[in-house]
């Protein structure tokens, strides 16, 4: 369990690759043997993709799992927003 949290701290994309190498069957069941959604999730929404694999191991999301997915989505959006905000330069004339 400590190793899992250490991987999460190193980054969601590294965690996704290692988890897919260790347990590819879980990823196949979660995404119903489609490769497009995990690839798009890897590029655009890594935390949301990881959370989907955690809460929907058979590809279906139930009641409280929507909350976890929403929190992961907010986390993804906050990282995206911070990257955009940091990249903006303010120049005073």
Summarize, please.
The protein has 93 residues and is mainly alpha-helical.
Describe the secondary-structure layout.
Layout lengths: L1 H9 L1 H11 L1 H7 L5 H8 L2 H10 L9 H23 L6
Helix pairs in contact: 2-3, 2-5, 4-5, 5-6
Sum up the structure in keywords.
single chain; 0% strand; mainly alpha; globular; 93 residues; 6 helices
What does the model show?
The chain is an all-alpha fold. The chain is built from 6 helices and no strands. The protein has helices at 2-10, 12-22, 24-30, 36-43, 46-55, 65-87.
Count of DSSP H/I helices: 6
> What is the 3D form?
globular
Indicate the percent of residues in helices. over 70%
Mean of residue pLDDT values: 82
Oligomer: single chain
Instruction: State Rg.
Output: 15 Å
Judged by helices, strands and strand pairing, the structural class is mainly alpha
Total separate domains: 1
The percent range for strand residues is under 5%
Biggest sheet: strands, sense, closure? none
Which segments are poorly predicted (pLDDT under 50) over 5 or more consecutive residues?
A: none
Distance between the termini: 53 Å
- What is the H-and-E element order? HHHHHH
DSSP, total strands: 0
């Amino acid at each position: 369990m400590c190793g899992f949290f250490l991987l999460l701290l190193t980054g969601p994309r590294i965690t996704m690759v290692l988890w897919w190498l260790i347990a590819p069957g879980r990823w196949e069941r979660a995404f119903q043997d489609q490769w497009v959604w995990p690839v798009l999730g890897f590029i655009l929404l890594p935390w949301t993709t990881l959370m989907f694999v955690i809460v929907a191991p058979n590809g279906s999301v139930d009641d409280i799992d929507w909350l976890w997915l929403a929190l992961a989505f907010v986390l993804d959006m906050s990282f995206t927003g911070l990257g955009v905000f940091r990249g903006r330069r303010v120049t005073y004339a």
